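Q: Is it fine to ask for two folds in a single conversation?
A: Yes, each is treated on its own. Send the first.
Q: Here.
A: Result:
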Amino acid sequence: MSAKPELDIQQVSKLSGVPSSTIRYYEEKGLIKPIGRKGLTRIFKANVVEKLSVISLAQFGGFSLDEIRLLLESGFNTEIDRSQLLEKAGEIEKSIALLSVIVDTLRHVAHCPNNNQFDCPKFQNLLKKAIRLQHQGVKKMKFK
């Protein structure tokens, strides 16, 4: 069974799981482009499904739509500053660390023997750790 070289927006939506309204929005933002129309229906190259997967993964990874657009425009060539990708990975690691502290704090508060958690030294330490993690500077990524 060979893949169709062209797909209409409904087929793209069905294959990718991305709603048609989101596909139109991504087109408006310059992330994807149709190759034409049949009547009022947008027609895309079949590889748009892969692009939508990349967009979803990048969004899940914390990239903005503008950052994703620049990434897609670059064609994933060597012009991408790999140090910026590593920086984004570092930002995600910081988020994970902060979320981990939040989980620990919630669990501690749920089981804390003190009536007032603010009197609890462990709770105070968790709050300080959360504040430190939250206020560490995070730089925005830019692509060349």
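Q: Second one now.
A: Result:
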Amino acid sequence: MGFQAGQLFVNLPVTNLQKTIEFFTALGFEFNPQFTDEKATCMIINENTFAMLLTREFFNTFTSKTIVDTSAQTEVIVALAASSREQVDELVQKALDAGGKPFNDKADHGFMYTWSFQDLDGHLWEVMYMDENANQ
């Protein structure tokens, strides 16, 4: 078997770290205080998956490339698996209520149900539920 990562850290630049923390807290996420300061925070997605939310200035210390303008460009879509269709709706609605913007409309493909939002910095988050028994 090939390489298998034990953990995944997605790094995303943010404009206002405190507002970003408040936004994702409203969605029900928690943060690791060991990896949180005025430049960054570590949002816990699950026990092996994390989003490092970094101020734009701090993010720039890790790359010489230009940070994309998320109002016009997309570099990544973060997809989160939910445990039910209701959980998809609940999380996206919380995001919209907390100041996020809609992205794609709800889509029901039978075996897969999705809905997405943009966070405060325009990063795209797709929330999906896959019914593994739907194709059987």
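Q: Anything structural to flag on that second result?
A: Two points. The longest strand covers residues 8-14. The mean pLDDT is 95.
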